[in-house]
Amino acid sequence: MHIHKYEKWWLTLGATSLVVFLIIVGISAFHYGSHPPSAKVYIDPERVDEIAPFNNPGVHKVEGKDWDYEVVFVASAFYYNPPEIEVPFGSTVKFIATTKDVVHGFQVAGTNINMMLEPGYVSEYVTTVDKAGEFLILCNEYCGVGHSTMTSMLKVVE
Amino acid sequence: MSKKQEKEPELKGTLYSVLFIGTFILVTWFMAFYLFIDRF
Amino acid sequence: MTTVTEKAKGFIQVDKRDAKLALAHIYVAFIALFIGGLCGLLQVLVRSGQFTLPWGITYYQILTVHGVLLGLILTTYFIFGFQIAAVSRTAGTLTDKQRSIGWIGFWTMTAGTVAASIMVLLNEASVLYTFYAPLQAHWIFYVGMALVVVGSWIGGIAQIMKYVEWRKANPGQPSPLITFMVVVNLAMWIICSLGVAVEVVFQLIPWSLGWVDKIDVLLSRTLFWYFGHPLVYFWLLPAYMVWYVVIPKIIGGKIFSDALARLSFMLFLIFSIPVGFHHQLTEPGIDSFWKYLQVVLTMMVVIPSLLTAFSLFASFEIRGRELGAKGVFGWFKKLPWKDARFVVPFIGMAAFIPAGAGGIINASHQMNQIIHNTIWVTGHFHLTLATTVVLTFFGAAYWLIPHLTGRILTKQMNHLAIIQAIVWTVGMSIMSGAMHIVGLFGAPRRSDFSTYGGSEQAADWIPYQIAQAVGGTILFIGIILVLYIVAHLLWFAPKGKTEFPIGEVSEHAEKTPMVLENWKIWLTICILLILFAYTIPVIDMIQNAPPGSKGYKLW
Ligand SMILES: [Cu+2]
Ligand SMILES: [Cu+2]
């Protein structure tokens, strides 16, 4: 098939750009570990309250791991437990969350922390909180009539 | 395939137009990537 | 150049009986536009914080109506009306049998639409059009949705039968380009909607009837998004048909290349489906590797759009130069800027530049975390669907409806149509622009008005939500205008003949290789890619499935 010279240039440029995007996100993910939240940890959604770590939601200091704190959240219509958390500026935090009922979102506004909570699955995300301030945690997946009132607060303190 | 020696149509404007689109895509993508890197 | 009002002779006219079938679809489409658009207006008003819904109607109820009517009903019905007319125009009048099948499809879809709508109005199904198990709607809602899908298969088969008949009658010849494109779109639609059909029939219906207690949530979402991404291409491809085949004729030019047009459609067929994970990038239970693999395939689907951009500009430039344009961009001025049939879809094409750029960002693996489920996404698909696709459909309606009703688009209506598109552009720029920006701040989509417990961040979102209300109100004015034009074209416009414009292929273009119409090859690649992208992660999902979920009604 005959293709115009400029069209060849254009397709080369376009395809190269796409490959560059893929290489950048691929290296960030598979070399630097910046994966989207993709945990494969399973739980019985009806027994969340009895199972560790969800029997004790909140902030826990940990030793000997790649992160300093574990933050455990339990979501249910239309609450997050705990309703507020505080972590020190500059610490590395692992967010661990699940839902007791329907699908919820877990988004920390203005950050990259954004994951789906699905019944039966544990969602995890590790990040270093390098900005101080108060960040709204909100449900960003429709879960019912109280959806837009479902919030918590992340305080990053110096 | 036929071996036409007909000269190709003049498509400079088309080339510049698609290059504009390409630039737009590249610029917005890298802005978003910067935002991702900047946030925790 | 032909003018809109010119009464030309010798047009190929779509048969009256086929026109009736096409028009039936178009009626439903525009009724859906009105009701769905009204719900959209109410949503932006509620979200501005200045307005509450009367009579106990909930935000999520109107959100469900808006999504179902505009995302599923307006689109599917308009597409089918357009496609039936296009097949009849280029591959010949439907046989009586084909037409009857078309009607059966129409009534099946319509019965389903009515059933589902009643359940939504009764507040028995505020689960949004993405279903969201384990939220559990009334079983009639799911049956209604299943009927819509099955009806679309039946109606689609009528169109495919005509194509098969044409191929048999004309062996060794490439089929009419637009008929070919219709069949590609239907093939993609049937293959992808199998996913949602399996979800509805084997998961949602038995579960909502109480035959089974539990549902596998992740599997249901995966089946949905296996359908959900090609769904957006099902909307887009008819717009591409107009751009590739109709617009060149309207500007008085030629189709740049028949072969490249067919190639890009076949690329859409094979790369549109195995990419649903880009809607599930932040979900647990799916390995990052498989997400990334589908991200790679998603980037492949950009390539046919790059091809399309080039072909369109090329046909514009070649035409402009024929008309004596000089310089690099002189051809741009030579385009028919007073012809609504060109201007309205052209704005749609322009909107696809930011829309496409945004789409690439959305699909960029972990970068999805910036925007996932924020109102940025709503802003994004109001550029793709609600501008690119919808303006192209409006532009097509301005010749399609009068062609089918035996009327003409008057000068005044042509003028009003251009004003309508400008109103739309202004309203959408404000609304979608505000959604994109505030989405980056973290404002969520699909959410009622909320101050989020007095959060300072959420307080900063409110001015943007007011801007969305302003833009949305302007868009509703745009809907009133287009409905006025459509009503005129249906019932009041002067009688006359209007052309169904079908472009001819440029004499410079080369002969179309028949391999592009070899369905065995393309369908095989299509299915292999789907199996490649989905088999292992789905087996993993089923083998490692946690206990299922019972149903909840939380609205
Ligand atoms: Cu929610
Ligand atoms: Cu998609």
From TrEMBL, chain A:
Its main location: other. Residues 55-158 form the Cytochrome oxidase subunit II copper A binding domain. GO terms for molecular function: copper ion binding; cytochrome-c oxidase activity. It comes from the Bacteria. Gene3D superfamilies: Cupredoxins - blue copper proteins. Keywords: Copper, Membrane, Metal-binding, Transmembrane, Transmembrane helix. It catalyses: 4 Fe(II)-[cytochrome c] + O2 + 8 H(+)(in) = 4 Fe(III)-[cytochrome c] + 2 H2O + 4 H(+)(out). It is found in: Cell envelope. Subunits I and II form the functional core of the enzyme complex. Electrons originating in cytochrome c are transferred via heme a and Cu(A) to the binuclear center formed by heme a3 and Cu(B). The keyword Protein transport does not apply. The keyword Transferase does not apply. The chain crosses the membrane at residues 9-32. One of its GO terms (cellular component) is cell envelope. This is Cytochrome aa3 subunit 2.
UniProtKB/TrEMBL annotation, chain B:
It holds the Pfam family CoxIIa. This is Cytochrome c oxidase subunit IIa family protein. The chain crosses the membrane at residues 15-37. InterPro entries: Cyt_c_oxidase_su2a (IPR012538). It comes from the Bacteria. Keywords: Membrane, Transmembrane, Transmembrane helix.
TrEMBL record, chain C:
It is a multi-pass membrane protein. One of its GO terms (molecular function) is cytochrome-c oxidase activity. Keywords: Electron transport, Heme, Iron, Membrane, Metal-binding, Respiratory chain, Transmembrane, Transmembrane helix, Transport. It is found in: Membrane. Its main location: membrane. Residues 20-491 form the Cytochrome oxidase subunit I profile domain. The chain crosses the membrane at residues 21-46, 58-80, 101-122, 137-156, 177-205, 225-247, 259-277, 289-316, 342-361, 381-401, 421-442, 462-487, 521-539. Signal peptide: none annotated. GO terms for cellular component: membrane. It comes from the Bacteria. One of its GO terms (biological process) is aerobic respiration. Belongs to the heme-copper respiratory oxidase family. This is Cytochrome c oxidase subunit 1. It comes from Psychrobacillus insolitus.
